[in-house]
């Protein structure tokens, strides 16, 4: 019998993932959708083919009917609260796939709670921006028993993702350590671009030649972030692609992880200081990580917004 799938969490990553899961996952049953704000579930369902999704008003109702439950929310507190609600139902024999970016210690505790209730658990954070989620080219990082990961695989590569970095039969929290490490690369790259573009403007080089250099030499996320900076998208966007709150959360988790093993992440610390300026200026939930450019500009005597 085909498994019944449920999805909890429809932020800017979850929405794109659901679109591809419904469109390319060969689901024989409607995907059950739950979001804290029901309207978001209804809005997404209305954009997808009729009969492919079903909006659920109550987590317990969806859990009761589901075999595999995908879960992706914004932070550790939200994960603990939401999974706690899931575990109030009978989850024996079900598979819970946690895709949120949280502290490894939180992952370890949540996994213990889930397994203690007789369910299977996979920690599978993802790499990629909302555009990658929408395009179905995310990188999945699943950790846990191989048998459980095999149950996830029909819905990842070629459906929601393009590849995986698996930690089969490894501690669940291992994947979160890699995720946090990877996110420090992004924080550092954005900080470096922001400083370089600001220096270029103030020294007379101009930002356009720097953007050309980035495109021709580096490309990839460097080009994507440089474009968001130069075009002013970082302060014009209505919904952040990577909010200041989440960026600070990830930086804090990464620095805590590093400290626990005797490593100091000096660059991440500097990035966190920049992001605090972004949060103070634009709001923690509204400011985007690319706003680090605005923070560096502000510290250098320029306007936060590059609209002059």
Oligomer: single chain
Radius of gyration: 20 Å
SSE series: EHEHEHEHEHEEHEEHEEHHHHHHH
How much strand?
A: 5-15%
Number of strands: 11
Largest sheet: 6 strands, parallel
What is the overall pLDDT average? Answer: 97
Q: Judging from the principal axes of the Cα atoms, what is the shape?
A: globular
Helix content: 40-55%
Count of alpha/pi helices: 14
Distance between the termini: 61 Å
Low-pLDDT parts are none
Verbal overview:
This protein is of the alpha/beta class. 53% of the residues lie in helices and 12% in strands. It contains 14 helices and eleven strands. The chain has helices spanning 14-24, 38-47, 59-65, 76-86, 104-116, 130-135, 146-152, 173-203, 207-217, 220-230, 233-236, 244-260, 266-282, 292-299, and strands spanning 5-8, 31-34, 53-55, 68-71, 95-98, 120-123, 126-127, 138-140, 143-144, 161-164, 167-168. The strands form three sheets. Strands 3-2-1-4-5-6 form a six-stranded parallel β-sheet, with helices on both faces. It has a three-stranded mixed β-sheet with strand order 7-8-10. It has a two-stranded parallel ribbon with strand order 9-11. Helix 8 (173-203) packs across helix 12 (244-260). It is globular. The mean pLDDT is 97.
